[in-house]
Design a protein that fits this description.
The chain has helices at about 15-25, 75-85; strands at about 5-10, 30, 40-45, 45-55, 70-75, 90-95, 100-105, 110-120. The chain is α/β, with parallel strands linked by helices.
Length: about 120
């Protein structure tokens, strides 16, 4: 059965994006094969789920075909504490008629990241 293996993102500031994923997800910069271009592999739960290619460009990427990237499910309080400590802007929403709450975090270079958490079942929010 197919499964999503990783996402690949072109970034201009690899170190800043690595810090963002570490701050928000607790992810780690890890082993990356010796490609002939700069980048990072970011590990989530021991898997290289986020591949960053460092590419020179002007300005942030405009939001386009991909609206956001989502990870979950995390515990609410530790996640909120990490976001507050790191200073990344976020908003909290939820999937209607479900136990899934959502942090939407504004990251570097126009990246919007969703991180899900468990909550009591709520309707209409």
């Amino acid at each position: 059965m197919p499964r999503l293996d990783h996402i690949n993102i072109d970034v201009s500031d690899g170190a800043r994006m690595v810090r963002f994923f570490a701050d928000v997800l607790g992810a780690e910069d890890g082993f990356r094969p010796p490609f002939d271009f700069p980048g990072h592999w970011i590990y989530v739960d021991g898997h290289p789920a986020i591949h960053l290619n460092v590419a020179a460009r002007q300005g942030d990427f405009p939001r386009g075909m991909i609206n956001h990237v989502a990870f979950g499910v995390y515990e609410f309080e530790p996640l909120r504490a990490r976001l507050e400590a790191a200073g990344w802007p976020y908003r909290i929403t939820g999937i209607p008629d479900s136990e899934i709450g959502q942090f939407f975090v504004d990251g570097p270079e126009g990246l919007l990241l969703e991180v899900q958490f468990r909550r009591e079942r709520q309707t209409g929010s």
